[in-house]
Amino acid sequence: MNASADSVATALAPLRSRWQALAPRERLVLGVAAALLGLLLVWLIFVRPAVATLRSAPAQLDALDAQLQHMQRLAAEVRELRTLPPVNATQAEAALRATTERLGAAARLTLQGDRATVSFNGVAGEALAGWLGEVRSAARARPIEASLTRSPGGSYSGTLVLALGAPRS
C-alpha cells in the first residue's frame, strides 16, 4: 500500500472498531438508514431532474413547433413580397399617406426623398402592428429605425423611419 492508503486506513480504524462494537441489530438499522439515504441522494441528484425534464419536454416541443410555424409563415410572406413587382415612388408615397391617415391625429408623416418618418403619439399596439403590415405590403416600405416607447396603457409614442423602394443589395 502507498502512504495515502495507509493514512485512510488509519483514519478509518476507529470507525471500524466502533462498527464492530455495535450489536447486529444496530448494524442492520444503520445499514438500512445508509441505504435509504443513498437512494434519496440518487433520486434527488439523478432521477428527479430527469423526470422533470421528461414532463416539461412536450410543452417545450409544442412551443418550439408554434415558433417554427410562425417563422415559416414569415418566410413565406417574405418570399411572396419579393416576388411582387416593385412599387414606384409615387404609388408608395400615396399608399403610405393613406395608411397613415387612417391612424388619424395620432400619427404624422414626413417624407424626405426615399425615407419617410412617422411620428406616433398614443397609438394602440394592435393599430401600430396593422399599420406596419399594411405599409410593408402596400407601400413596400421597410422600417430601418425605430424609437418607440410604450405607455402603461399599452399605447405607443415615438418615431419610426421607413425606407421606400426596393432594398439596396
Mean pLDDT: 89
Largest sheet: 4 strands, antiparallel
In percent terms, what proportion of residues is strand? Answer: 15-25%
Number of helices: 4
- The helix content is 55-70%
As an assembly, this protein is single chain
| Alpha-carbon distance between the two ends | 74 Å
- Compute the number of strand runs: 4
Structural category is: alpha+beta
- Over all CA atoms, what is the radius of gyration? 35 Å
Low-pLDDT runs = none
What pattern of helices and strands is seen along the backbone? HHHEEHEE
Widest sheet, order of strands: 1-2-4-3
Q: What is the 3D form? A: rod-shaped
Protein described:
With 169 residues, the chain is α+β, with helices and mostly antiparallel strands. Helices cover 63% and strands 20% of the residues. It is built from four helices and four strands; from the N terminus they run αααββαββ. It has helices at residues 3-21, 24-83, 89-101, 125-139, and strands spanning 107-112, 115-124, 142-150, 155-163. The chain has a four-stranded antiparallel β-sheet with strand order 1-2-4-3, covered by helices on one side. A hairpin with a 4-residue loop joins strand 3 and strand 4 (155-163). Helix 3 (89-101) packs antiparallel against helix 4. It is rod-shaped, with a radius of gyration of 35 Å.
